[in-house]
Write a structure and sequence with these properties.
EGF-like domain-containing protein; 14-stranded antiparallel sheet; single chain; 7 domains; DUF7949; ComC_SSD; about 5% helix; 70 strands; about 900 residues; Immunoglobulin-like; seven-stranded antiparallel sheet; mainly beta
Amino acid sequence: MVYRFSYSKKSKTIILGYEGLVSGSTQNGIFEYIVDLGHPLKTFNIHDPFNNVLSLSAGSLLYKDSNDNPVFFNWPVLNIDLDIENVTILKNDIDILNKECYNTIYFNSSTIPHDYPLVFNLLDPVSQEDLDEGIIDPLPIRWSEQLKLFYCDFIVPKNTGPKTIPYQISSPFNLITNEAFTPLRVSKTRFDNDGPLITSLSNTTNYNSSTIGWRMEIIDFGNGFSKGYIKAVGSFDSSILTVNFTSANVSTTSGQGTIYDGEYNLILDIDVNKPCKTQLYTIEYIYLEDTNKRFSVYSRFDKSFKQEKDPLRYVSDSIPSVISTNSVCKTTISDESPPRMSSFSITSQELDVGSFSYRFVNITIIAEDDESGILYSQRPKAYITASDMQTIMYDSEIQAFSLNKGTYLFQIEIPVGFGYPDPLLVSIYGIINTAGFYTGYSNDDPDFIKSTIISTSLSGNSVLLGYEPLYYYSKSNIIIYGRLLSDTDLVVIAYSNGTKRGYSPVPIGQSILSIPRDDFEIVGPFDITAFSKSHATNTLRVNPIYYEKYSDPKPTSTPIPTNKPQRCLGSPLCGGADHGTCIENQGCVCNSPWIGIDCLSQVIIIPPPKVNNTDPTIEIPITDGGNSGETNTTTIFYKSLISLVSLREISINNTPVEGKTFRFEKWTFKSIDSFTNQYHTTISVSSTQTTNVTVTLKWYENETIVEFANQNLKMNPSSIKYTIEIQNFPFESSLNSLQLIMQASFLSNKIQDTCSAKEFGDTTSGDNSNYLKIQIENKSLYGRFIKRCITDDASNIFLLENQLLDSEMNAVESPNQIQTYIGIKMPWFEHYSIIDPDFSVLVNSDSASSLSNSNCSSKDSKLSTIKIVGIVIGCVAFVCIVSVAIIYSIQLKKKESRFIKKVDVRLKSYNSEISKTNE
């Protein structure tokens, strides 16, 4: 016969009884239990009535089947590695000074099943202590079909630890901590993990006013005092008197008391003007709690509480003299006999501990004392004991009272399966008279023995027993626990506003119902009833946890980091003292007009580029006299091209959102002044939604200091700045981001003995930006991409991410032509986002051939007509033009204007082909 089951949860032993019997009998049955997988399971124990135990762990032999094959015990959950990616926290750099933070963590995994049991734990000092004390449990991690992400809503307690809050994600077998993930940072707090303290304690017994009690001063300078409770016990009759109080009971007689520092007068409920027993009352227990549920406990006899939790630890020297107070009764009655129980009645002595309606029983007793009378302040208690000695205590309520007689009612609900299959035994204790004598009645009392035995049965009825905690406004499925729920086909929820809705639940085994959520907001308690074809269950009241509402997750601003430390380059360092200065842990800071991470490049002073009135594409041509062995009659042309390619939404998984990539097509042009032009386009995101993009191009003739995103930036002479504003983009999720793709190209008509190179990295000038440098020979196009954007308000500065997309976009690269794509990824915004890259053309002290990553052609390599045709087939149209020019010995100096026009046409054609390829 199976008697019970058990397993260990931290330092506690969890006992499971017949509440899990879903079919069969105690000798041969099927049991089903909901087990907390937030803690590693090592063994599961099966007990019989004689306390014989079978301990099972993974791999334990259960039995051999009919074919003599061994059957082993295994946990119903696989051991899966926690391969977690893209961890994102909804709100970071949080302010938890005197307020909680309602937050969410999101992550993805390609290996973890969506229904795999995962839990999330905050490990800050406040949360860690609550976990250790069993006050809170690990939070379940769920899967969102809408976001295609795992997520967990959580509440960061106020005034917990500073700087960063550690956390962990765990399964029944593995756990992973936050060291590898995004940190949860705290911007403002005032750490307080201590419960309220008593700084003074004194007796306030006043025999003239007939009040007996204590005055205590309570301080809690961090969170503030919330509520408390004291228990005092009489020295003669062991009567128990309690005082519950809150911060609203603070005394104002000695000044303005506050929750942070206040006096409280705690008066015992003793009427010394009526007959009573003169005796000493001693405080045996004190419980104090602050507004953040940090508690302190004093127990006179139980020393298991931590010393640092004792609210009296700073006044311990004075405790013996003030912890007790004397009650002097003005009227006493001589009585040497205890009171008696004259009547005991019970509504039923047969309980079905498997049902929802027949587990309730009422017991009524009458206590009498003809000599001294019944003590009004004391309430008798009932004890229900099972055969394994598990006992439940119930308090009574007064139904009627006179000096010599009291009628008391016990309303008792027996837990599902409790005591089955053996009888339950009832005992009554705690009846006290005013003379200080008490009495009690055990279940074998001869006068009441027939009435104090309750037989038990276990029916097959469906019962709702509990629920998984959920938050206000939660969109997660509602998880209900119970018994025999597999036949449920409908649940009805009665919401707090009177609305009733029906749902089709998903049964999980016999014990769980998962109720799919709809768009109805949970804003208060609600009632759930489950229905099958044959019957209805009890109604279960669900009390959600308050959680701050947000319409959609909105990211919070992240401090803009500085570029990582870099070493100074060049020989001499930074080009020498005339070029720049080496700053330790930063790199080279260049003197004007030098530029770059080694201060070996200069901005080429050129006239403003020709205005493009079609789209925000800039072409910057430059020429170079003969060098590198060329004749003086040879002119080398360089041309840079900067354009906007597309806009696309990026998911939290860092992948493009399907159907949310938009290429730029038609632009409207507006000239602001001789150096500033503006372009505008509208993108149709859907049939009803549009996004506006405005690009302002400004040419800087001279060195200028400009401000963007609360930082001063130096604009080099002959540089162009793109100010791009994107308005009202309809994101699918506020966890997503938006990426603007720009293209930059640099070309030369020199083919032989030519080298090109590309660099992308962090600047060293202190502007905390990225730079892009695409170089052919000793000329280059230089782009600066600021790591900041302005979002929704001039004061909202957000971090953005710049990255090369060349491998994804199939960028072209040859010795005399470089094409690159840059993705500028900005975070979610509600109204608008502004970014501000800029570009210059440089002349470099060193040729590209000196760089380790250069791409070079040979001077001796002669191009045949067949090779030229091959290059044309390879879509390198520009090279074809130059090659043909060489074959026919056309003097390029005389054909300069014709060449530039051809290059212009070829570039536009080339860009068109690339656009079609990428669509």
